[in-house]
Amino acid sequence: MKRLKTAIDAVVEEIAKTDARGTPSQAVPALAGADTGQFGIAVHTCEGETVSGAAADTPFTIQSISKVFSLTLALEAHGDDVWTRVGREPSGDPFNSIVDLERHEGIPRNPFINAGALVVIDMLLGKNAGKASHDSVRAFLEARIGADAIGIDDDVANEEQSSGFVNRALANLAKSFDNLDNEVETVMKAYVEQCALTLSCEGLARAGAYLMSDRADQHSDSVAEARRARRINALMLTCGQYDGSGEFAYRVGLPAKSGVGGGILAIVPNEAAIAVWSPGLDDNGNSLLGTRALELLAEKMDWSVFGSIERR
Amino acid sequence: MKRLKTAIDAVVEEIAKTDARGTPSQAVPALAGADTGQFGIAVHTCEGETVSGAAADTPFTIQSISKVFSLTLALEAHGDDVWTRVGREPSGDPFNSIVDLERHEGIPRNPFINAGALVVIDMLLGKNAGKASHDSVRAFLEARIGADAIGIDDDVANEEQSSGFVNRALANLAKSFDNLDNEVETVMKAYVEQCALTLSCEGLARAGAYLMSDRADQHSDSVAEARRARRINALMLTCGQYDGSGEFAYRVGLPAKSGVGGGILAIVPNEAAIAVWSPGLDDNGNSLLGTRALELLAEKMDWSVFGSIERR
Amino acid sequence: MKRLKTAIDAVVEEIAKTDARGTPSQAVPALAGADTGQFGIAVHTCEGETVSGAAADTPFTIQSISKVFSLTLALEAHGDDVWTRVGREPSGDPFNSIVDLERHEGIPRNPFINAGALVVIDMLLGKNAGKASHDSVRAFLEARIGADAIGIDDDVANEEQSSGFVNRALANLAKSFDNLDNEVETVMKAYVEQCALTLSCEGLARAGAYLMSDRADQHSDSVAEARRARRINALMLTCGQYDGSGEFAYRVGLPAKSGVGGGILAIVPNEAAIAVWSPGLDDNGNSLLGTRALELLAEKMDWSVFGSIERR
Amino acid sequence: MKRLKTAIDAVVEEIAKTDARGTPSQAVPALAGADTGQFGIAVHTCEGETVSGAAADTPFTIQSISKVFSLTLALEAHGDDVWTRVGREPSGDPFNSIVDLERHEGIPRNPFINAGALVVIDMLLGKNAGKASHDSVRAFLEARIGADAIGIDDDVANEEQSSGFVNRALANLAKSFDNLDNEVETVMKAYVEQCALTLSCEGLARAGAYLMSDRADQHSDSVAEARRARRINALMLTCGQYDGSGEFAYRVGLPAKSGVGGGILAIVPNEAAIAVWSPGLDDNGNSLLGTRALELLAEKMDWSVFGSIERR
């Protein structure tokens, strides 16, 4: 624990000295003016402790990180049938590309690009919603970390409702291929609501703890859940950072999912769940300092799914 | 060790009962008539032992698995400069697609699609070859497992020399973008030679042992090499099975590289290197039974980079 | 005139004997069951006469042929500014492809693919509608051939309103690139209404007469209008039959625009406007028998914009 | 004739005053430094006279204009069988794009993009060469305008031989799909040789006269040839200016084929063949001033396949 605290402090210090801070998302007006000086980090360990640094309790919109939670619910409700409606391959295209969706006849390449997330959410709505433990990402998160730890950014929610034209294009195209059961606007509403949820780094790290697939974790007491978590980690590693997933795997070596609000949730299987946040993004739409912080922390802790360096 | 032997025996038994066996590569005439009943498996552990099953000592052409070894040499010689000439992202297209190469102006998406492998090999030839420890994949492999364990399939070598039109198209296109220093035919020759090398499963598992990034391994005594291995694992996981990499990560959960000859090299970081072989391929060009065998073995051994299920 | 009548009679006879009749559009349910035995033809000459054959007075929905008329109005209202919002190049993709729209950042390739038609209609609506002579395709057509010659197919109109998901996808994507001033649903409504207009071959030939760019034509008394007609003909020739435009130009040699209802309007510059109709479509979505009839008529009349064969 | 001479003189004068002159092809080193002040124009009429202006007797490499002549020979030798190996549709992509070739499984979109021209030339070589009247473009041209009017630019020929990597990529890809009978280098050699032929505007206008499909023309005394000419015109109109074909049809309204050397051959069916030349190119690789000159001349002569404006 002491080693972790020391490592986090060193990361915070190094990040504070970094000049390049990226650019906030210009696609979401409520985020466009965000202060790129902001940074937070929190680690929830398999021992159940949370160690944090900098602005770890400042809430931010989780945006696409919510796709991990809706996928979890869809897998719980529909099992591997999920994969009849959405693929499991990296897309090689930006997060909002419509090309792949047309080329693959309405089957999004994976559940983390926008088209895939819309189809996943569609599986959780209406009469085909199945039997997930919770009926929304918000309810799922409340069960894990308590309602008090969760907010909603109304500015983001309202704005996206009216301006999400690309997402409406994707949803309509999926529907034209019969891959959307509910009305476009119904799906859009649920999508925007889960994207606009706000958590702090501390909340997010705790919320993502079930993905450690550690059966000691109180929320993960079944083999089925651990197995599911492992598979979600696989998807996060191959597809979680959009068109920067390969580079992220190379540099950081951990499964992770980013959001356009500047947050990233990363998992050290069997060991820890990490949340970082800084609103400035890189060219692929992932938090620039968040990625850098994860790289530094993973280095200092010798964390990588691709092998330990330290002699054991 | 006993658990591993029991697991391998069970896998061999289950594979023997499997009816669907895939189709040998029709692109390589010398492979087209291969007996899809053939299967071999070998595991080299971090303790330095090799446990094997079925036709583990039958040699087969390693084909694209050789791309892992040439990449290792290029990273040794050129370090991260490799990434100025080839990307690190999954392609979302088949292994021999020329689309991406044009779209990204001569920079192949990753070192494991054919275009990327040609550029990597180009980095090992001629006056810009750098300072790799060996001047060819064959020499690299001989240093690891001895010349006796390595052969070459002349039929494959000669055939591909004359018929590799797609690869010549890729090489010429890369050259048109100034991303090939040597003559197209020089690069083609080296490419074909390393693809036509033959190893058995036992030889391949030993040859790939350095990718465990385990410093106890006799061939991997430096931190630098362990660090490099870790990064190669990341590339194998995100890009190693062509357009089936995402599904492979989901089902098997290990970094791996397949070859059109039916072999697959998979790595359990810090624990083991696995080689499987069966010539029947699936739609993405990966060994059907080889993939299935890896899935079974990983399940039985609780091996996955995305987390252990067994309570520790 | 006698030669024309003889030619039309011969075409009608030959078409009646043709076995291959294509398939009605399955995308529009109200058309899906259409009798592919139906066929009509009418030619309006520069002398002002109309010669027709078979079911020349049966009304059918003009569908995409309406795009010619809305483009005419947009050019009248906005002149060459139209081309700041839509291109003039053949697309090399099907009529409803969304790929090009994304690749060209919201600028449709031409005004005859669906995305282009939606943008053109947008230019005729709202406060930026400009100063076209008529405020809708219907009004434009009424001024030319009288209200009695024009109907609307309510089944088609209502159906498409609710099921045009691809078009909504295109409109939303255009809007995401700021290339749609009006609400998506407002544009969709106008689009569907003009597509559902019904004309007979006789009506359509007279309605298209202004495209002969013949100043003797009563509707075409200005040089400006003749010049505009000439340019619309150019677009019809290069882009009028979707991804079959090249082959149509090769076989028929006349500017033309097809509709999914089975109609085609073709122009013999300075000589005649031709309308044909038969509901069975070919693979590119153009009327199979309509195209064949035009090929036969053009052959018999020695009509081609690419040169006369007969010694003059 | 007097009207034509007056029109040409006016065009020459206007072009001389034009400031924007485009950029010579940088892809062909021997052309890269060309003086963009150069301009020539010649018109060969159906009466058999040639009227010219400016540098109408300066030779230049015809480059891709040669594709019209090789296509003529292939159609003569193989008839419509040509279209089993190459398409007739505009490509919507640049002239040297390899994407379409892969997407359409080795069938180039049309005979005027590079891939298509290579396949057409392949049809004229070797044991499947068929029965064309001449065995090379050079022989075909010599029969029309005499050997004295034709040269070859050795710099261009030698240079392209060694540097045509994109074309080699295209040829290899076509061969991988079994759409090239001869060796890649054999086809490349013939391709480069016909591209490096030099003609003056006067020579080119006379050489292209057969495309007027005028049976009075001495070289075009058969209906079959006139019919073929008409179809080549159709291809020139839809595909002759690469990805600028639609705009060219809109602005100029004549079938035409451009070459990267700055020449353009345009046809006024039944009336005239026009050659213009100026080495500065626009963004699509077509002569900037050449296109402008054709637009001016067509305007002054009321020439357009899409209709005459002048009251007849």
From TrEMBL, chains A, B, C, D:
Q: Which GO terms describe its biological process?
A: glutamate biosynthetic process; L-glutamine catabolic process
Superkingdom field: Bacteria
UniProt KW Lyase keyword: no
EC assignment: the record states 3.5.1.2
Q: Which Pfam families match?
A: Glutaminase
N-terminal signal peptide: none
Question: Which reaction equations make up its catalytic activity?
Answer: L-glutamine + H2O = L-glutamate + NH4(+)
The record's annotation in SUPFAM superfamilies points to: beta-lactamase/transpeptidase-like
Q: Which UniProt keywords apply?
A: Acetylation, Hydrolase
Q: State any single GO MF term.
A: glutaminase activity
Self-association or partners: how does it assemble?
A: Homotetramer.
Which family is this protein grouped under? Belongs to the glutaminase family.
In terms of NCBIfam families, this protein maps to: Gln_ase, PRK00971.1-2
Name under which the protein is recorded: Glutaminase
Q: Which gene encodes it?
A: glsA
